[in-house]
Amino acid sequence: MAKTRREFTPEFKREAVALLESSGRPQMQIAAELGIQPSMLRQWRTGLMGGSPPPRVAGSPGAASASSVASPSDQAAEIARLRRELDRTRMERDVLKKRMARPVRKVANEDACDWSAQTYPACRHGAAAKMESRTSRAS
Fold first, then answer.
1. Are 115 and 123 within 8 A, CB to CB?
2. Domain count of the fold of the chain
3. Dihedral angle computed from the Cα positions of residues 42, 43, 45 and 51, in that order, rounded to the nearest 10 degrees
């Protein structure tokens, strides 16, 4: 006994394709929920889109086509750029590690350091404390 072929209204097809486009869920999942084959949903989408395949999202499987593969020289330039960026990031990390490893000194008289904070914003109390200790030794 042969199965009768199911027919779907154009409205159902449009709504199914709209659900596929708006939900962001996999085609297999939506097709299973609607009780249809994924290939049917794919054909409806292609038919409604005018025969052009949908644009692929970057990072999704199969997103890179043969026309979007970079040439070897472009790939080498990208690798060199990424290596420079990695080196710079490693240097920044090392500087921050060293900075965090140093103990923080407290100055007894913070009022004496007011000029230091304006002159040397990166070194809030260190310069004033050194200057104060030098002037006290000299007198």
1. no
2. 2
3. 120
DSSP state of 60: S
Of 48, 18, 50, nearest to 34 by C-alpha is 18
CA distance 129 to 66: 65
Per-residue tokens: 55: 């644009």
* Segment 86-103 mean pLDDT: 86
Q: Would the pLDDT of 102 be above 90?
A: no
pLDDT tens-place string over residues 30-86: 999 999 999 999 999 999 887 665 555 555 554 444 445 678 888 888 899 999 999
> Using alpha carbons only, how large is the chain's radius of gyration in Å?
33
Regarding whether 134 and 88 lie in a shared domain, the answer is yes
Name residue, tokens 């240097």: 91
Q: 41 is in which domain, residue-wise?
A: 10-52
**C-alpha pair distances (Å), 26 with each of 20, 29, 32:** 8, 5, 10
